[in-house]
Design brief:
Distance between the termini: 59 Å
CATH topology of the largest domain: TIM Barrel
Shape: elongated
Order of helices and strands: HEHEHHHEHEHEHEHEHEHHEEH
Number of helices: 13
Strand order of the largest sheet: 3-2-1-8-7-6-5-4
Number of domains: 2
CATH class of the largest domain: Alpha Beta
Oligomer: single chain
CATH architecture of the largest domain: Alpha-Beta Barrel
Helix content: 25-40%
């Protein structure tokens, strides 16, 4: 993976030469710093590019008059948020630990205090889907001058335009957009992967997928469709208690996700049709067709079309030159079933 310094600034997305894979830890650390570090270890070993967290606090995220039906397992939503908050005093330690493991650390801030706290330690920012309408928060993120990933779950094109305009007001053009379906888990039928190309064409920005479906196949398909970024929640165990564990992938799935994405990237190629690759040269010789003698042809015989057949292997004259061969004389005896070469013709 190419290393980046904080001074890369606006060049960041242009310097990523592969799909940027984000291991979304989010709140799945269950407020255990050792577990958070273990998850970073797993993400690094799997080959992910970045570990991502979420920084929020219950009082600034939900009204105290919240509807209890919003809570996890029927509980009060504020109490839920308090139970899964990432302690902000962890941020420097998490950032340093990610760097030790060769990974990029970043997070999605949900209030301006978090923006400032992350600016001291994070290499980029994420704007979560639900926050795309909070233009003040987006301006605060953009003011830091760092790369920004904006998730677009629930958003229409006008709301995406508003968010981009808020960034550009602060001179920050270093933006990538993620398609996202804001269901947990998301059914495949609402993922709308084609919208990545719609956003790429409309806004001229890198695009990717924040994937809340079960399994890894939708993310892999997104890479085949041109996603530059894949973000996927993961957990050490889907049976753990918490709001985001049940739809997250486990360590072995994260490893397989990275492996399949890198294999798909390799398979995409450069799009040029240049003939056989070095690996195909064997097949090129034995499986392509060439002109062969259908029967014995004596030296001096004028060759007619009924003396020839196109068959494998392709070591002889190509079939497209049939009309050039017909009417020439055999320069020597040609045995039946021999492929014709130029030196056989006069």
């Amino acid at each position: 993976m190419k290393k980046h310094s904080r001074s890369d600034g606006i060049r960041f997305w242009n310097t990523i030469d592969h799909t940027f894979i984000i291991a979304e830890i989010g709140s799945n650390h269950n407020r255990s710093l050792p577990l958070a570090k273990e998850m970073i270890d797993v993400a690094a070993e799997a080959g992910a590019d970045a570990a991502k967290f979420q920084i929020y606090s219950a009082p600034s995220l939900y009204s105290a008059r919240d509807d209890e039906r919003l809570g996890y397992d029927g509980g009060n939503v504020s109490k839920l948020i308090e139970s899964v908050e990432t302690p902000r005093e962890w941020l420097p330690e998490l950032a340093d630990y990610c760097r030790e493991k060769g990974m990029i650390f970043f997070a999605a801030p949900f209030d301006m205090a978090a923006v400032d706290e992350l600016d001291a330690v994070s290499e980029l920012f994420k704007v979560a889907s639900f926050e795309i309408v909070d233009l003040s928060l987006i301006r605060g993120v953009a003011s830091k001058g760092k790369p920004i990933i904006i998730a677009t779950g629930l958003a229409d094109m006008g709301e995406i335009e508003d968010a981009l305009a808020a960034c550009r007001e602060l001179g920050n053009e270093n933006i990538a957009l993620l398609q996202c379906a804001s269901c947990y888990p998301s059914p495949a039928s609402i993922m709308n992967l084609r919208s990545m190309e719609t956003m790429r064409r409309a806004f001229g920005l890198p695009v990717g997928l924040s994937d809340h479906t079960l399994g890894i196949h939708i993310s892999v398909a997104a890479v085949a469709m041109g996603a530059s970024i894949i973000e996927k929640h993961f957990t050490m165990d889907r049976k753990m208690k918490g709001p985001d564990h049940s739809f997250a992938i486990e360590p072995q799935e994260l490893r397989e996700l990275v492996r399949q994405i890198r294999e798909v990237e390799s398979a995409l190629g450069d799009g040029m049709k240049k003939g056989p690759s070095p690996e195909e040269l064997g097949a090129y010789g034995y499986a392509r067709r060439s002109l062969h003698a259908l029967r014995d042809i004596k030296e001096g015989t004028v060759i007619t079309e009924d003396m020839l057949i196109s068959k494998r292997p392709g070591h002889g004259i190509r079939p497209k030159f049939l009309n050039w061969v017909v009417g020439r004389r055999a320069a020597r005896d040609i045995a039946a079933d021999s492929w014709l070469t130029m030196d056989m013709l006069a």
